[in-house]
Design goal:
single chain, 155 residues, alpha+beta, four-stranded mixed β-sheet, 4 helices, 4 strands
Length: 155
């Protein structure tokens, strides 16, 4: 269908978002909800499905929360911001900030498609991966969070 401005509505996107809205409404203890995300290559071929249960401990070592599959509470913005000084990993840093506020709810339904081969960040699949570029950026993120990550490892 079309909306009043004549734009084509993406009904599938609306239904996907509704899944996350419903999940957050049902679990008021959670600060964010995220879902399975289909990872595809530049030709749309399915590479894998991102579907890891939430663990703040694991979030310190891997950004398994795909940005296009997350809905977080507006209240998180009172204390969490995307750090624009990060060239990459700004989403990972943001999820770590939000995770201070409470747990994330994993919704075992696919609501997003993640295209890893688009862009020039150096974080894509093996054909685009640029370890020399990414290593100092990852070190910077690790330095920012080393105190909390270390404390969790000793808990």
């Amino acid at each position: 269908g079309r909306d009043r401005a004549g734009l084509v509505k993406n009904q599938h996107a609306e239904l996907r978002a509704e899944v996350l809205v419903d999940a957050l409404q049902a679990r008021t203890d959670c600060v964010a909800a995220y879902s399975k995300a289909r990872e595809v290559d530049r030709h749309g071929r399915h590479l894998k499905t991102r579907e890891r249960q939430f663990s703040r401990f694991l979030l310190f070592s891997e950004c398994f929360v795909v940005i296009c599959s997350v809905l977080f509470r507006r209240s998180a913005l009172a204390s969490c911001r995307f750090d624009e000084s990060f060239e990459v990993f700004e989403d990972w840093d943001f999820w770590l900030q939000v995770s201070r506020l409470g747990p994330f709810l994993f919704v075992p339904q696919e609501t997003a498609t993640y295209r890893t081969q688009h862009g020039t960040s150096g974080l894509g699949d093996a054909s685009q991966r640029d370890f020399d570029h990414v290593k100092p950026l990852l070190s910077r993120l690790a330095a920012k969070w080393s105190g909390e990550a270390g404390a969790m490892g000793r808990a």
